[in-house]
Amino acid sequence: MKTIPTFIYLVIFTLMSPIQLLSKNLDFTVFAGGCFWCVEADFEQIHGVIEGISGFSGGNKENPTYKEVVTGKTGHFEVVKIVYDADIISYKELIDIFWRTIDPTDGEGQFCDRGQSYQSAIFVKSDIENEIAVSSKLDAQEQLNAEIVTPILKLENFYPADQSHQDYYKGENLIFSRFGLIKQSKAYKYYRKGCGRDKRLKEIWGVQAFP
Q1: Which structural domain range is residue 63 located in?
Q2: What CA–CA distance (Å, rounded) separates 97 from 101?
Q3: Domain for residue 201, yes or no?
Q4: Among 53, 56, 87, 91, which has the minimal tally of Cβ within 10 Å of its Cβ?
Q5: At residue 197, does pLDDT exceed 90?
């Protein structure tokens, strides 16, 4: 697996509170759940999650750009690297939550975003994580009474997206949209609603849908 650049960790630590910095049990996992803005927004509200970093994984091209990835020609998925405190939340708990943030029965993309780069996936970095993910997948499949097509893949690389995609859901920059000149955070809310993400989650998971 390729080494994550040191500056990424420096950014994470800069954003941490003194209490978080005292943690002795930081770990990370990588999920693909369609639009990485939405995955980041979902997981950063979970107690025990330190930071979500939007990026790309699963393909062969080094340091891909967003425009390259969305063509579907790089083999990369849009992903989020989730850094968490394992003393507060476990890997299994994160996996169990992940299923309820996506449509795991859709193998062609997620919600309104279609194509390979928007497909869902779990990336594991050890045999233990693989066992936990497989077990959780079987449990979720039984609850849904439907086939889950989300693959569990070995984590080989991770490339962070450029800064404009990080924490997009709470950005204060003004952008031009079909609704006029609005804040990034408001544009995100329009996008999420228009994409039908939360509506579809309720249809699939009912009261178990997250968030």
Answers
A1: 6-168
A2: 7
A3: no
A4: 87
A5: yes
How many domains does the chain divide into? 1
The pLDDT, as a whole number, for residue 4 is: 47
Domain with residue 88: its CATH number is 3.30.1060.10
Report the C-alpha dihedral over residues 99, 168, 159, 112, rounded to 10 degrees.
50
In a domain, 195, yes or no: no
pLDDT digits (tens, 9 = 90+) for 132-159: 999 999 999 999 999 999 999 999 999 9
Question: Tokens 């997620």 belong to which residue?
Answer: 110
Q: Which residues are catalytic?
A: 35
Checking if the pLDDT of 63 tops 50, the result is yes
Within-domain flag for 129: yes
Q: Prior bond to 5 cis, omega within 30?
A: no
Terminal CA-CA length for the chain: 31
Q: Minimal CA–CA distance to 187: which of 176, 198, 197?
A: 176
Exposure b/e, 131-158, CB count within 10 A at least 16 = b = ebbeebbeebbeeeeeebebebbebebb
